[in-house]
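Changelog excerpt

This revision adds worked examples to the README so contributors can see how folded entries look when concatenated. The first example is reproduced verbatim below.
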Amino acid sequence: MLPDYISRTKPNPASNRAPWTANTAPTYAGIFLWVVFYMKLAENTIDRAGIGLCLLALVIAGILSYKLYYYVPAMLGMKTGLPLYVVGSSTFGTSGGYVMPGLLMGLLQVGWFSVGTYTATTFILSGIGSDARPGSMTFAIIAILWGYIMAFIGIKGIHYVSKVSLFLNFIPAVMILIVLFKTWGGISSYNPPAAEPWRGMSLLIAAVIGFFATAGAAGADFGMNSRDKRDVKWGGIVGIAVAIIYAGGLPLLSVAGAHGLDPALPSFSYDAVLSKLGGFLSPAMFFLFTLASIPASCVCAFIAGNSFATMIPGVPRMGSTMAAMTVAIILAITGEAADLIGFFSIVGASFGPICGAMAADYLLSGRKWAGPREGINWAGYGAWAVGFLVGIVPFLDLPESIKEWSQPAVVYSFVAGFVMYIVLAKSGLQPDVVDEKVIA
């Protein structure tokens, strides 16, 4: 007997699918246009490696995100019409799929929601000129209001968000261009204060891919809405690789330009640049970036709700989602959600080996979905464990000589998961496949 989350799922029919221009590309682009992506991207990157090498790092990160993290899940989704939770039952087993990628995806969305709530609250307070900080009553009130409203919309009204998301994505796309125009004059005079080119590039690659890792695995859900391989390909190239270069490159240039104009600027954070714009433009930018973050916040709540409702069907969707979002709001209020780059790296360490194991399973199965495997697929879990340990090396108490070359750990974790899955599968730790006709 297959678990309900598999047996009750029906493939998305061809009649429900659409071109890449209508779903994959704009949705993925919107993820990168979220200010959470680029707000801290310049920290410890352009001040170490400089502008040219960091732009090169963005190109590399875009290609790797597309090829390693998105392509295989998207192809699995396109070929089967099934979501991530189901296609993942091949790599991790029908029982193992409950935890990975099932509940793990939901838990990580709680983290993303906390980051989004923290950022939106900070921007709202900056827009009104308040110096309230995490832990204060003012910060808590705004975080609670924002968090619960976004969570409720994510549960009940996500279809309304999708209708306006294209317009809302247009706002940050134009705003980062305006900020670049305002800071352009200082780019030529910017000189990085530190000369650590590899360190800066590797940290930037790790931050970008770490940010994208969960969305890459969710490529299965995008792929199930794609008509063919061409939709998968161009949706990824435009929505991921090109979007990373645009949404990451322009803010990096803006931060460099701001420091070129004012070398005494105390921070390499993007919000520090917004604060220096002055006049009406500065508070307007904070409010507009907050408005543009609505789709991403609602999507986080929606995905988390899907995960918990699918994997824990005995608990009402509203109850489980609101409980999870309450945890996220508390993390935002306390300021624990402020370490964006660190969070991106942990996410990458979690989902890098998942994507690596899925890619290995896909290739071993002849570039197709093998079908759900019985029980727990220990090849998948072993691959994840090894890859996760590789991914968290930068956070361990190790000599600096080792940690210096430990980035981009998210890429190393993918490779470790990929290789280990092949080794363990060939060693007989991959269980038999349940007859896939059961869910046809």
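The second example, added in the same revision:
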Amino acid sequence: MKDHSPFRLEELDVDGDVQYSFSLDTGDGFKEELFLTREDEGFEGNGYDWESIALVFLNEIAPELIECLEFDSEADMFCVYSDDYDRILDFADRFTEIVNDDDKLADLFSRAEII
């Protein structure tokens, strides 16, 4: 399995059903320099801002994953979840690869909109 750090990929028991979450605690300032480039527009690097990047990623790069993923982000946490392990793992692998490439991440972020 690929390293998704600082994101976490976890299996959860939700009322007896298995769900998988891919999340990031946003309080540590991960990629802070990126969000500072659009601070005047209201971006802070919070969970909603990461979700806005993930939505651009899904719409442009991985539209086949849109219907099997759901977001539950908050100010201090980005979170996407699914009951389909293979699909969330595909999202996690591909999204982490983009996040680790500053140019590709900046490109996606340039089209992100405040949620």
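Reviewer comment on example two: The chain has a mean pLDDT of 96. The CA atoms of residues 25 and 77 lie 5 Å apart.
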